[in-house]
Structure formats: structure tokens, C-alpha cells
Amino acid sequence: MSSLDDLYRRVIMDHYQKPRNRGKLEESDGLIVNLNNPTCGDSISLSLKVEDGKVVDAKFLGEGCSISMSSASMMTDAVKGKPVAEALELSQKFSDMMQGKEVDDSIDLGDIEALSGVAKFPARIKCATLAWKALEQGVKQAEQE
Length: 145
Known about the structure:
- This protein is α+β, with helices and mostly antiparallel strands.
- The protein has a single domain, classed as Sufe protein. Chain: A, CATH 3.90.1010.
- The protein is built from four helices and three strands.
- The chain has helices at residues 3-17, 66-79, 84-98, 122-144, and strands at 31-37, 42-51, 54-63.
- Strands 1-2-3 form a three-stranded antiparallel beta sheet.
- A hairpin with a 2-residue loop joins β2 and β3 (54-63).
- One of its GO terms (molecular function) is iron-sulfur cluster binding.
- Residues 8-127 form the NIF system FeS cluster assembly NifU N-terminal domain.
């Protein structure tokens, strides 16, 4: 195992064991998106507060493997305070990374890059992308309100 793989594993386990933004926003403060991955049983409840084209706050609750829960932790950390367009661009970049596509380096992925190895395991990609799909649905829902 390379030292980079070891570092990535430690970052993933850190987010899994000490998730950032774990919790739920009051319904009056935002919207909630619930998604499940029936293939493996992962589930997420993403709370989003979107105002004036910006992701003001993001929290999640859920159950699942270390990949899905750490991805949710990383995603909420990364999109909080970002304009919706930038959050969606980050989501697209993450999706490209999960599909093994070449990823533009103009946006710093930070801890999210630790999930890049998941692309080698097709059965785990749905685990990693569950929270991101919830983000995309939540942003669309917020734009319709």
C-alpha cells in the first residue's frame, strides 16, 4: 500500500468516525432530502438551507458504510457557504472523478480527493455518490420554492 493510499484511508476513516455536520436543521430553516441506496442499504437524510443562491447550511443524518458516511461529511463541509453554482460544479467534478474521468484541477477538492480510489470499485460508487445526489435534488427543490 502506498503512503498516499494510507493517507486517503485515514482521511476517510476520520470523516466516518468524527463526521462533520452530522445532525438535522429545523424544517423551518431549510429542506430535507431523503435518499436510499437499496443495493447496500445506505441511507441519508440531507438538510439544506439555501438562500439567495447560496448553500447557507448543510447537515446530514444517515446510516451506511464508511464510504457513504464519510462522503456525506466531506460534501457538507465542502458546500457550506458556497454559491449554488459552485456547489453544483463541485458535485459534477466529484461525479466525473467517480466515473474515472480526467478532472480539472481548477477547484480544490480537499479531503474529497481521498475518495478518488472508490472509482476502482464500481459497486462502491453508489455509496460515495449518495450524498451528492441528495445535494443535487435539494438544490433543485430549493430553486423551485
